[in-house]
Amino acid sequence: MALFVRLLALALALALGPAATLTGPAKSPYQLVLQHSRLRGRQHGPNVCAVQKVIGTNRKYFTNCKQWYQRKICGKSTVISYECCPGYEKVPGEKGCPAALPLSNLYETLGVVGSTTTQLYTDRTEKLRPEMEGPGSFTIFAPSNEAWSSLPAEVLDSLVSNVNIELLNALRYHMVNRRVLTDDLKHGMTLTSMYQNSNIQIHHYPNGIVTVNCARLLKADHHATNGVVHLIDKVISTITNNIQQIIEIEDTFETLRAAVAASGLNTMLEGNGQYTLLAPTNEAFEKIPTETLNRILGDPEALRDLLNNHILKSAMCAEAIVAGLSVETLEGTTLEVGCSGDMLTINGKAIISNKDILATNGVIHYIDELLIPDSAKTLFELAAESDVSTAIDLFRQAGLGAHLSGSERLTLLAPLNSVFKDGTPPINAHTRNLLRNHIIKDQLASKYLYHGQTLETLGGKKLRVFVYRNSLCIENSCIAAHDKRGRYGTLFTMDRVLTPPMGTVMDVLKADNRFSMLVAAIQSAGLTETLTREGAYTVFAPTNEAFRALPPKEQTNLKTAKELANILKYHIGDEILVSGGIGALVRLKSLQGDKLEVSLKNNVVSVNKEPVAEPDIMATNGVVHVITSVLQPPFNRPQERGDELADSALEIFKQASAFSRASQRSVRLAPVYQKLLERMKH
Question: Looking at domain 505-627, which CATH architecture does it have?
Fold first, then answer.
């Protein structure tokens, strides 16, 4: 029988679904924050919540984990106080808030939650108090006493002078004809009010903030016998116009109005949905250079990107911002929205002059500065916001400005300002040609570049792409920051001036008098063809002084073609490794077979712990790094040869011992010892 009951219970649980077998439905963000406040307040007794109050204001917030440790709201310091959680009260002589508030009707509950002004105005109407005290199930979003007192005098006068029409209608707009708890308040939903069935907009944000027509819930879920009361921080009013209609009627949006019409976005802004429009005022447009503004207004694609960069994908009320957060625009750009006291900020700037203008399809915040996305900018405009101003001045001086402000599809490789800390090169034919080779004849994105790809420049050169574990390089220059993609061009910020390859490795070595002895050695060893043909090599090139500094014995070793070729191959890696691709340590396989240890520390490249005197001389089939010593392969180093000999002797003695134990006849060890002696002679 017991087994039958258990099986029946399991069957019922499965039939009811996974929620019944787990812990119930997930809690709303508001309830999670309230739960955290309870957790922080439990040391003070049952049903005590920790509340953060912004110093110098009456603003209070239930605390989440991040705010608890930061002790800040909108950058302002807070103090922690401990209060009874919603629905509970203190009992004299007992710790905490052990008693549940007695249930009463809506009218009396208004006084309990601190909305006595709403009670007072309810009394002044003839019909509303009996309704609040009578049977039914209602929700009232009750403005706090401070909310009523902050209304403009003329608005308050118009309400109280006509209590049975204006005031009654205003109060009914705060009511819903059913019980709605915070768990029922979903982000982006609308509730039908008891005033002409007008909609109320609800937003329930991930940080636990709940807003009603952008008024914040202060104390929620106060149950009554005939409904529930939520205390809010503003008196809310009906919403009649959509975003497009507000743009049409506001004089400060004259330029925006024309831009929206030209872009065709008016259809979206007057349709269904929930958007946030960061609406630039006429003043914001006037701050932009006339040439830039005319260019964008005359380019449908750039104009659409500009306007989409001012539209967020959901409604964002100011009260929802208690700390910085990233939001995505319709254009795809990420904006950093934050707050400083009562001011909202965009990308760290307090440019919002008027906030929370409600529309039927979202909310509008007025801004006094245009948010131009990269996708609407020229290369010059992209560079103005990057650390490449010195390079841009060089491009201008070289007469290449038209390429950076026109409609060509290009990618600009712009070295960082720090590259020119020792001065800039004079503008001459060589410099102009070098700068032309910093402009790629295509609009690229770094995420699509691949190893071995070739890129054509305005100067006619073919540049190679090298992909390393932690860097992406074009010839000797590596990308130092995220690329910026503009209307027609893309900006790559580079860590050094790019030097295009000038001939093969052999051409590079022959053209430099420092390598005359190396060139002769390469020719004697029969490696000329290797370093002339197509390939991908890293050559650590010893200078003439390096060869002259060799000890006499090692110079003698270079006189045989075989030994010479062995040593030279040890100086040649079998792939291209530029200094920007090294990282901490790279083991590079040489043509000789052994590996070279290439490292980078304090911007100095070393190979086998020997510093490189000059890195990154680019060739069409490789790269040359200048060194001031001749590298010795492992078996050419005396110490390592001795180590190898000792290892061989040890191994032979082990073999001899094994033979001895097996046969117990020493005569059989003779061949082994003879082999050892021969090895030691060599």
Answer: Roll (2.30)
Q: Residue 514 class from Cβ within 10 Å (0-12 exposed, 13-18 middle, 19+ buried)?
A: middle
Query: CA neighbours within 13 Å on the CB side: how many for 520?
Result: 10
> What residue segments make up the domains of the chain, in order of their start?
29-99, 105-232, 243-375, 396-494, 505-627
3-state helix, strand, coil in the chain (%, to 5): 40, 25, 35
**Is the fold of 105-232 the same as that of 396-494?**
yes
Three-class secondary structure of residue 234 per DSSP: coil
Give the pLDDT confidence score for residue 421 in this predicted structure. 93
CA distance 87 to 184: 18
Cα–chain center distance at 250: 36
Q: Which helix (H) or strand (E) holds 327?
A: strand 325-328
Query: Which CATH number is 105-232 given?
Result: 2.30.180.10
396-494 adopts what CATH topology? FAS1 domain (2.30.180)
Number of H helices, E strands in the chain: 27, 35
Beta-carbon contacts of residue 435 (< 8 Å; ≥ 6 apart) = 394, 395, 398, 400
Q: Rounded to an integer, what distance in angstroms lies between the CA atom of residue 530 and that of residue 573? A: 12
Angle at 345 between CA 343 and CA 348, to 5 degrees: 130
In one-letter notation, the amino acid at residue 580 is: G
**Where does 131-274 show beta strands of DSSP type E?**
138-143, 175-176, 190-192, 199-204, 210-212, 215-224, 227-232
Considering only the C-alpha atoms of the chain, give the largest distance between any 2 of them, rounded to a whole number of Å.
128
**What is the structure's pLDDT at 678?**
55
Q: How much of the chain, in percent, has pLDDT values that exceed 70?
A: 89
- pLDDT digits 0-9 by tens, 44-94: 999 999 999 999 998 999 988 888 898 999 989 999 999 999 999 999 999
In the chain, what is the straight-line distance between the N-terminal and C-terminal CA atoms, in Å?
92
Instruction: State the CATH class of domain 243-375.
Output: mainly beta
Q: pTM to 2 decimals?
A: 0.81
